[in-house]
Amino acid sequence: MARVSLKDVNKVYRSRHHEVHAVSDLNLTINDGEFVALLGPSGCGKTSTLRMIVGLEDITSGEIHFDDTLVNRLDSQARNVAMAFETYALYPNFTIEENLAFPLEVRGVAPAERRRKAREIAEILRIDDILDQRPSALSGGQQQRVSLGRALIRDPAVFILDEVMSHIDAHLKFQMLFDLKAIHQEMKKTMVYVTHDQVEALALADRVAVMSHAELQQVGTRNDLYHTPANVFVADFIGEPPTNFFEAELFTGGNGTVLKVQGTDLEIALEEGHAQRIARWNEKQLTVGIRPQALHLGGDPSLPALEAEVAINEYLGERSILTMVNGRQTFRAVVDADTAAQRGDKVRVHYALDDVMVFSGKTELIIL
After folding, report:
1. Among 180, 197, 254, 294, which one is most buried in terms of CB atoms within 10 A?
2. Which helix (H) or strand (E) holds 241?
């Protein structure tokens, strides 16, 4: 296993007419045996980062270390990194056992040892009953397990997974999430998982590194990202349904400090301590974020509330999502599945002041 450190790493793709800065001044440490997910939308730089770690892309500037070894100029084989891709890339004429054992055969490992290791990995992945079959006879989930096993059998220092669940249906995906988590806990490999799916990242990773526009936005545990997002992007990208955002203006008067939501009659009162923190930023135009899960229909009447008209009641089985409108502002709340509110009903949704996030209107960084 290895600790992976990226220091001031940049990747610039250049052509005759222009250049694209794919990764900008990335600093990230993945600890020995840690499971870290690189999460972000398409084009954010996560795949370029992965390819630089593996050695498939040259680094424009910066350093990548495996433990104390600088690997910038080492090829992927010398780095002892194994990869599993979204495409399974299995050899169709090989049996599953032969597919699993092939990396060891290339290394010149004796047949008996190859067979032992293949069966050991197959048992961990629960595919030991299909070792004599060929890939065409397997389901997508089984093929993905074989692909994972072929990477794991090499006993790599770092294990890279690149969008490995893109071709798996929802039911199999939840099983694979469980399997991958169990594999990591059993084998304690340093794992880097690249995905655009927050559910996968939050379910699997010890820490998640969120990227956007070639830059690392925040790295932390799922609680860090959900409860203390660094900026508007992270607050918006993490959480389902997405965070409600309100453009608001700060007012201070005889009744204390309030945030008046633009285009509505909504006001959000602030506690004195929060008001003082906001005042230090010297900004009047701010962005307020409240997660739909923090808005409660028929909640504690002593708590502050937002009033609105129901536009949609979306029933999802174990819960419902109310979409509400006040003036030009639309926002949502997660409510009980048996909520009877219908289009046109007037409702009050309560919230706790501790659940209100306030961001700078200029930088979009979190203030509180």
Report:
1. 180
2. none
Question: Which of 173, 201, 236 is where one domain is finished?
Answer: 236
- What pLDDT score does 195 carry? 94
Q: Are 366 and 359 in contact (CB under 8 A)?
A: yes
Which of 162, 216, 277 is CA-nearest to residue 23? 216
Tokens 């309030």 -> residue? 258
Count of structural domains within the chain: 2
Whole domain around residue 215: which residue ranges? 4-236
Strands (E), the chain: 4-14, 19-30, 35-39, 61-66, 69-70, 81-84, 158-162, 190-195, 207-212, 215-220, 244-253, 256-261, 267-269, 285-290, 296-297, 305-315, 320-326, 329-335, 346-350, 357-360
CA 126 to chain CA mean position, Å: 27
Q: Is the pTM of this model over 0.70?
A: yes
Using one digit for the tens of pLDDT, what is the confidence trace for 10-23? 999 998 888 999 99
